[in-house]
Write a structure and sequence with these properties.
mainly alpha, 3 domains
Length: about 190
């Protein structure tokens, strides 16, 4: 009769979670997430990526993230609202740039659409006008032929890099440049 060795409890199969019975590993992951959240709010995807980089298994990461979500420390919708409000107000970002930033942070497309719906076209245009006005005040406006074209390109490029549509950027720059020239004549 052939005897087979009993399976060792230290060996784990390919489908088993080696960290399942190690509560210290989960607590370490939890503490790490809390440290990250102390610095700034983060999305679930960002935290999951950081845990993966640190070598935590997916089941451990999911349990920790579920726990943080349950107590309200991880909330992608709230994160998206705060991010959009802050980046639109302080960095002057347009809808397109904000959507790209949120996508890179792992926010769901539906949440992005809902969050960006709060920014109406009027508010976006007002912010673009303010950005152009602020930049024009520091701009040297020559009376040389073609100088307005250079200024328009530079300002439209600034708005485009911040996520504003080309048509809005050109319209805002044209109106604000004419207004600034009039202001300087007086």
């Amino acid at each position: 009769m052939t005897s087979f060795p009993h399976p060792s409890t230290s060996e784990s199969g390919p489908d088993e979670d080696p960290d399942r019975d190690d509560p210290n590993r989960e607590e370490q992951a939890h503490a790490y997430c809390l440290r990250l959240l102390t610095a700034r709010a983060r999305t679930r995807a960002e935290l999951e990526g950081r845990l993966t980089q640190r070598g935590y298994t997916e089941p451990v990461a999911q349990r920790v993230l579920d726990r943080l979500t349950e107590v309200g420390l991880v909330d992608d919708e709230d994160f998206a609202e705060q991010w959009v409000r802050s980046r639109h107000l302080y960095a002057g970002k347009g809808k397109r740039a904000l959507a790209d930033e949120l996508r890179r942070k792992g926010v769901d497309a539906e949440v992005i659409t809902t969050t960006l719906a709060d920014i109406d076209a009027g508010a976006e245009r007002d912010r673009a006008e303010q950005l152009v006005r602020d930049r024009l005040r520091r701009e040297r406006l020559d009376d040389e032929p073609g100088s307005d074209l250079k200024v328009k390109r530079r300002l439209a490029g600034m708005l485009a890099r911040r996520g504003y549509s080309q048509s809005m950027a050109l319209d805002v720059v044209t109106v604000e440049l004419a207004s600034e020239r009039e202001r300087r004549r007086v």
